[in-house]
Amino acid sequence: MMKQSNDIKAGIIVKTRFIDKTLQKKDEKAFESYVDYLDRDEAVRKQHFNEFSLYNDYMDNPEKMGTLFTEQQDSLSKEQKQKIKELFKKAFDNDSIMWQTVISFDNRYLAKMGVYDPVTKTLDENKMRECTRAMMKTMLDQEDMSMSGLWSASIHYNTDNIHIHVATVEPNPTRKKRNINGKLRPQGTISPKTRQAMKSKVVNTILQADREMMDEIVRNKIIRGKNSVWSFEHPKLARRFVKLYRKLPADRRKWFYNMNAMKPFQNEIDDMTRVFVRIYYQKEFAKYQRLLVREQETFKEAYGENSKADDYAKNKMNDFYQRMGNAILKEMREYSKIIHSPAPQAWP
Questions:
Q1: What pLDDT was estimated at residue 50?
Q2: CA atoms of 167 and 18, how far apart (whole Å)
Q3: Is the domain of 192 the same as that of 332?
Q4: Of 108, 134, 247, 260, which alpha carbon lies 20 to 30 A from 175's?
Q5: CATH number for the domain that contains residue 74
Q6: What are the C-alpha distances in Å from 274 to residues 236, 266, 300?
């Protein structure tokens, strides 16, 4: 067993390559092997695993391979497997590209995220399938194959890393052609933008629970709370409200946090946000900050040290202040309409 270092270099790695059976005989054989692979029962597939070249680069321990699953099915019946085989064979006959995608996890990262128990070696396979389906939807959508692409996948276990392997084809190819040595061939390359989006989708799906909790705190508690509590209900907020309101430009259409006209006032708006949070939501905001720090660390582990994860918490806080700022400016617009109406109403 390969000894792992103490640091998690990259908790999640996503790689994609393609097979074009019209270019090389070995690719044709690999494509055919996968069709055969689909047609065998689990025991035989494991017994004859080394005969199938499709996964030999990645799958070191076929005895711990999971069952095949697809976009709709968690496992395939004999009839469903036969249908997949027929569609892959049709794709092969129609000169489709076959894309091989591998999602590789550092098991310690999965354990940290509560998806894997290293003691019992139990994996949350539902979460893994959810990650795969979200990732593949992103790939097919961004590569204009959402109506033409077909994929099947398998989770593979070993002592060092858990992998998910996905094979994708187009039974009726739609990919643009490229000229290779005077011949038109299907375009197999997946764009860097798509590959990055695929990994982001896996990471975000893993982090979904924390994201939902953070969104609950910001959107459904703090922001909603600001929209239901008038600044004039507390003297510290009231003083800041009036002081800022008197400085704003006359045109209320410019009273939005990120508009250029508001740039000179953003510090004062942010100060109102901080005061509001301290008065009404100090505990909730402290929890939000703890989740944010944890998420940034797990985000960094997912992408590796050379990622832009250090900007994540900063960007999330900027977004929070923007949301709160717009809630405050909305209150000011409503206040302005009331006091300038023909028959002024009493401000709550």
A1: 39
A2: 9
A3: no
A4: 134
A5: 3.30.930
A6: 11, 12, 27
